[in-house]
Amino acid sequence: MSTIQKGHLLWYIPDGYIPEISQGELLSHESICVLNTYQEDAELKITIYFEDREPIEEMNYLVPGKRTKHIRTSALEKNGQVIPVGVPYAIEVESSIPVIVQYSRLDSTQSELALMSTMGHPVNS
User: Fold this and answer.
1) How many helices (H) and strands (E) does the chain have?
2) Pairing mode of beta strands 67-72, 29-36
3) 88-22-59-70 Cα dihedral, nearest 10 degrees
4) How far apart are CA 66 and CA 89, in angstroms?
5) Residue 27: pLDDT over 80
6) d(Cα 99, Cα 11) in Å, to the nearest integer?
7) Per its UniProt entry, which superkingdom is the organism in (predicted)?
8) How far apart are CA 94 and CA 118, in angstroms?
9) Domains in the chain, please, with CATH?
10) Which of 23, 52, 112, 123 is most buried, taking the most CB atoms under 10 A from its CB?
């Protein structure tokens, strides 16, 4: 059994943007993809930062042990606050246990689809 720590407690994704329009059947969207390789549930606190407004702080989300979750950023909400479309933002993911974080964007604003995926930036804690 490996004793290597899998994942990190703190992750950053600096480039978030939900397009205002979509074309075709698929809706443009973004997801925070979280992998929890431990038995224990991961309690996430997600904070969204903006260029010109106060952040939406500590939106809570649970990723059960030995599971993965794809969290649509358009579905995140705290006290009626949501991420507006057409506004750049950045994401902070803080977890109660080490997790792996990836970010994916489906852009259907053009006649052809574009899919982008990148790892979040982990911060050693």
Assistant:
1) 0, 10
2) antiparallel
3) -120
4) 29
5) no
6) 9
7) Bacteria
8) 18
9) 19-123 (2.60.290.11)
10) 23
Question: Could you tell me the two tokens for 6?
Answer: 């899998």
C-alpha span between 24 and 113 (Å, rounded): 9
pTM given for the model: 0.86
* Structure-block tokens of residue 109: 């604003």
Tell me the chain's radius of gyration from C-alpha atoms.
15
Side chain identity at residue 7, one-letter code: G
Pairwise CA distance, residues 72 & 109, whole Å: 18
Residues, the chain, total?
A: 125
- Cβ within 8 Å of residue 121, ≥6 positions away: 11, 12, 13, 14
Contact (Cβ atoms closer than 8 angstroms) between residue 49 and residue 90? yes
DSSP 96: E
* Cβ atoms of residues 29 and 18 within 8 Å: yes
Residue in the structure block whose two tokens are 């982990």? 122
Q: Which residues contact 16 (CB under 8 A, 6 or more apart)?
A: 30, 48, 73, 83, 88, 89, 90, 91, 103
Q: Name the nearest CA neighbour of 121 among 95, 102, 94, 108.
A: 102
